[in-house]
């Protein structure tokens, strides 16, 4: 569901140049079929080059690993997002600075008048190794997170500082899962990143029954300046991952070419063998 | 890389360590082993047929034409190696729904496909397998995976966080079945044209070394059939084993003088330079080889 809002008839058009911040818009959509099992909610961005060399280099992994010296003295790769108002930025770099900050909420419009909000789980979206090994908050044990980040300032484009990303202390600071997912830079300019999980309730009821829904968007992230697009994607997962027709089509194509080639070569080999004896050598 | 396809994809696709180690560790040893140990025909047949050396002398094996074919093959392989993972990663999610289309997983997929394609290519090219060839080729692949998992491990990240940012990547992406399917597809797509081309060439336009190789194979198949004969006539062959001149065939050969050519000098001295120009020397060699082959083949038929 594209919610960029460039089309004047789109509900999110008013958010392109907002009069008030934050701007909230709502998009209605209908699910034709019910979704069973675990459902995954992604946000997708287009024309966003997370693979640009300068962009990818603009991070400090020691700082993100909680190294106290790197916290106060981030690496030079982060320029120009290294220091602000004479204080080091935590987390530094262009990748962190451009973090996606839209909030998406999903509601099911039932037969009753009250729409039911769908429970969205925000933990378990990042890789285990990322959350537990690569990204660590600065050490401190019992000291509250705000104290541990003392002497640093928030990135330029952020509203809240890093130690206020979530009230849950296991998801705050550098180990905030949304932050971790964002920092794992995508390979291609059109990508999707996992936003929330919708866990299946029980086997009797589908996780997302067919019907009308609406998506409540807190539109913070500006993409129209570079002709980018934003989407929300709901998907279920099979044994091989998400829906990906390319691999199937490619396999069928290469398989049929191989088969044809095998047949052709068999015919040629058969003909050649009949024409001359392989033991003859023409010197 | 490929700026036309993905505008401003300016980042190096591969891990820095992979680039460094690729030429040194992963691919040098198999090529070295092939250069030293490979043998397209057996040594005996190489001596029997000096024509085999003719393509080398005439620069037929490494000239501009062959070079451009190599370059074209390289371009095709690199296109396959990039675009197949590109298409596969375009709109994909991992097995737990988690993000796998990130730049590092893409790099790991491409790097693994590359190492496997290169090793398979060398394996196809090797026509004479020794233990060392096996060790070098499969060892290179094993070394690649070993180093991959080491550079992506938690331990080494703890020591040098800035040098090894790929932590956890190998474990995460290589446990996805989707990635292995992509690697398999890329490998097959890369060497399928090569296999087809080679096969057609050997069948329709065989070179001298191809023909001799096939003759060798036919000989090997023929030998087990003929080896039954000595078994049935063991007593007679044992007796004549020490003095084979007693066998009927040899006597006739010697008395007829067919294996002694008084008018032509023996083959070994033909390697001296004659006063005539080099082409006539080659022609002489040509003639001698014809005779030598016939005489040797006669010997062989008798021994069988």
Question: How would you portray this structure in words?
Answer:
- Chain A is of the alpha+beta class and about 280 residues long.
- Chain A has 2 domains: about 15-245, no CATH class; about 250-280.
- Chain A is built from 8 helices and 9 strands.
- Chain A has helices spanning about 55, 60-65, 70, 95, 130-135, 145-150, 175-185, 245-275, and strands at about 25-30, 40-45, 85, 85-90, 105-110, 115, 190-200, 210-220, 230-235.
- Chain A is globular.
- Mean pLDDT of chain A is about 80; it is low at about 275-283.
- Chain B has about 300 residues and is mainly alpha-helical.
- In chain B, about 70% of the residues lie in helices and about 0% in strands.
- Chain B has 15 helices and no strands.
- Chain B starts with 15 loop residues before the first helix and ends with a helix.
- Residues about 1-10, about 225-245, about 265-280 and about 300-304 of chain B have low confidence and may be disordered.
- Classes of the chains: A alpha+beta (about 280), B mainly alpha (about 300).
- At the A-B interface, helix 1, helix 5, strand 7 and helix 8 of A face helix 5, helix 6, helix 8, helix 10 and helix 11 of B.
